[in-house]
Amino acid sequence: MISARKVLWVLAPVLAAAFSVPAWSQDRAAVRSLVAACFTCHGTDGRSVGGVPPAIAGLDRQYLLQTLKDFKAGKRPATIMHQQAKGYTDQELEIMAGYFASVKPAAAPATPPARY
After folding, report:
1. Any idea where the domains of the chain sit in the sequence?
2. What is the CATH number of domain 22-102?
3. How far apart are CA 85 and CA 60, in angstroms?
4. Which of the 8 DSSP states describes residue 24?
5. Contact 87/39 with Cβ under 8 angstroms?
6. What's the pLDDT tens digit per position in 20-46?
């Protein structure tokens, strides 16, 4: 039989971790509000048109996170991204990277038919 004390020892870290995560990181609307500033340049949900700036929807989460951290630290040259990234905590950058990694990339545009 498992004692109540053993159950508490097992559950305590799990409960502590659950309550330490900000509520907005679990709320899709709040996360979308956090990443909305990115839409101005990178397109809605990170699906830029024409590739400049690059589309970020569907990229690897770890790649996005490292890129954001490099911008924040000034390790990666940029026109504006280094200033943008400095405005977020590392936890916010993790949430943002997770959001864009979870977005399905836009389909490639269809090639228009040739005109004669």
Report:
1. 22-102
2. 1.10.760.10
3. 18
4. G
5. no
6. 445 544 688 999 999 999 999 999 999
Q: Are 14 and 68 in contact (CB under 8 A)?
A: no
- What distance in Å separates the CA atoms of residue 90 and residue 95, rounded to the nearest whole number? 9
Q: Which residue has the tokens 């097992």?
A: 10
pTM: 0.70
Residue type, 4: A
Query: By percentage, how much of the chain surpasses pLDDT 90?
Result: 57
Q: How far is CA 31 from CA 39, 87, 101, in A?
A: 13, 16, 13
Contacts of 55 (CB under 8 A, 6+ apart): 42, 43, 46, 47, 48, 105, 106
* pLDDT tens digits along 82-110: 999 999 999 999 999 999 999 999 876 66
Statement: residue 57 has pLDDT above 70: yes
